[in-house]
Sequence to fold (117 residues):
Amino acid sequence: MKQFNEALALDLHRTELDRPRALIGLISLLVMGPMFFLLLPLYIGALVDYLGLSEAQAGLLTSLELLGTSAAAVMAVFWIRRLSWRRVAAYAAGALLLGNLLCVFFAVRHCGCRNGY
Fold:
């Protein structure tokens, strides 16, 4: 009985963040989070070189993307407890995928970009 009580006490003190799946997810977020900032010079260079944007246009586009990211993080404070974050994440991933597919379609159809160039 003593072993059961000790095991129960240890399990009660263990939080969800101590579980391996949660730690792997947390580490993945910590790696992916700053990835945009680390790749920002490459992104701006690609906008200028391959899409023919001026440096000012590429900077504005990047600033708008960062503004959207910041606005989403600030607004999350208000809805994170009211909505299912898993459902919101699924919708956001779908919107991101759709937006990227539309960008590829636009680039191929209207800019004459084929084979990535």
Q: What stands out?
A: The chain has a mean pLDDT of 78. The CA atoms of residues 18 and 40 lie 33 Å apart.
